[in-house]
Amino acid sequence: MVNRMILANVLHRPIRTAVSVLAVAIEVGMVMLVVGLCHGLVNESAKRVEGVGADILVQPPQSSFLFGLSQAPMPMKVGERLEEIPHVLAVTPVLFVVNSVANLSVIYGVDMTSFDRVSGGFVYHAGGPFQAPYDILVDDVYAKANRVKVGQTLNLLSHEFRVAGIVEHGKGARLFIPLATAEDLQGVQDRASIFFVKCTDPAYGDDAAQAIHKLLPKHSVLPIKDYLSLMTSNNLPGLNYFISAMIAIAVAIGFLVIFLSMYTTITERTREIGILKSLGASKRYIIANILREATLLAAVGILAGYGGSLIARRAILAAFPTLSVELTWDWRFYAASLALIGSLLGAFYPALRAAQLDPVDALAYE
Amino acid sequence: MEPIISTKGLKKIFRIGKVDVPALRGVDLRVQEGEFVAVVGPSGCGKSTLLHVLGGLTSPTEGHVLVDGNDFRGMSDADRTRFRRHKIGFVFQRYNLLPTLTARHNISIATHIQGNGFNPHRFQAVTSMLGITEKLEHRPYALSGGEQQRVAIARAVICEPKILLADEPTGNLDTENSQIVLDMMRELNRTFRQTILMITHNLEAAAVADRIIRMRDGRIISD
Known about the structure:
The structure holds 2 protein chains of 2 kinds.
Chain A: H1 2-12, H2 14-50, E1 56-59, E2 74-75, H3 77-83, E3 88-99, E4 105-110, H4 112-119, E5 124-127, E6 135-139, H5 140-146, E7 153-156, E8 159-167, E9 175-178, H6 179-186, E10 191-192, E11 194-199, H7 205-215, E12 220-223, H8 224-230, H9 239-268, H10 270-278, H11 283-319, H12 329-355, H13 359-364
Parallel strand pairs in A: 4-9, 6-8
Antiparallel strand pairs in A: 1-11, 1-12, 2-10, 3-4, 3-11, 5-8, 6-9, 7-8
Chain B: E1 5-16, E2 19-31, E3 36-40, H1 47-54, E4 62-67, E5 70-71, H2 77-87, E6 88-91, H3 103-114, H4 120-129, H5 145-157, E7 163-167, H6 175-191, E8 195-200, H7 203-206, E9 211-216, E10 219-222
Parallel strand pairs in B: 3-8, 3-9, 6-7, 7-8
Antiparallel strand pairs in B: 1-2, 1-4, 4-5, 9-10
Helix pairs in contact in B: 3-5, 5-6
């Protein structure tokens, strides 16, 4: 009976209902997409580093796990000393070059021979390895996003690069240039930003990391699993605050719209509330009805938000293939919970106000 | 026999701004169970306020009010709501049906609020007697004023209240529909021995009752 009355009320004012549902849907969609984008980018970046195939990352003292922020490359000789450590199978130096044109990205300056030994080698979708100093390899995702073909030139870092090959994504960066070229561009010689170390068996990773730490006590020595645990939004400066701020804005939108919607509903239905009171409806009955109506609006809004975020995700990935949007079940649950709690809180004051209406005044309301 | 409604020295004073406005100035009233009583008087004489107090919609300022054994002194708002839910049925001049619900649901919401379950036999008996069985799936906007008022009466009596309080039930109706509604109320009173207290300013309507009480300036002037 109550459900029928609530449904009838909701259908009676379709525009108000649509606006309320839309607000909740925006709230849910915003939370899911912002979190999904942030987590997606961080996780995707971490996966790519993991995809290099190394068990240990060695960086200069006081380096950041954010590669683009790493400074003061290490001498190449460090790599030779790393190779002498027991259980180390291969070591490859990489010099990072930050490309800030169009979007911020880290280009890997790689030594092909050692990089192949650590990573197992690139899988080429088209073209092949570097043939000249200003050759570049791009991964398939970058190639698709930027419609890049083998043989064409890319203007990066104020230089013209010829695309030598398109490789399978997932080996650290999206763009690779020869190590020597990267050194030229950085104005350094025999230097590396990081050494990727591969062990004879991943089980020796901790032992090898301890040995490296003894050898290079001031350097940053990170087993890959530790690196992956660091690569979360919690550890990225400001990202958590950004996510929290966006969630707060989204929840505020949902809360305010539901508040306003229910408040106007109560005003509009003052007489109806008076009727219910004259029939003996208790305050709890009135409050429960209004909260149930808010729950219905929130539930439809949550479903619309899920649908909207799936459509938005498709649209984002179609427009920007290099991005990653992770819509996890955890965050679906959190976004729904936030929307529901926000809606109930938004409806609570109007519900309380309705429950406290004087029945005689309410019945006389025009 | 104990009266079902008994008031002594009933006063109701409204405070409007800083001014006290007395609506009831000491009403003594006794109504027996099964009586059909009409209260007549000019606008502002306090008849609607009397109805609201007896129905527990508002509390008395002073005096004793005993309705079906319930003494209003010391009753909280929640107590009065509970009392209203189980003992009182209201009929209003403006019908006061819920516009989004059908006639059937407007009637059955009263049983839902009361919480004693839906009694299909009672529903059938009441709607048949009021002649609205063909209109049960219509929403209020699709019903005439007379039909709406009959639905409102059905809603008021569906839970078998001890007392039916009707506030100008024919005030918005034409003569023909007024007569139909008054006949229905008379029928309810006779068939179910329903106690009815009806407020009206129409003496012709009042004539249908067993007893007519006249009010003026917040007092009963004749009974």
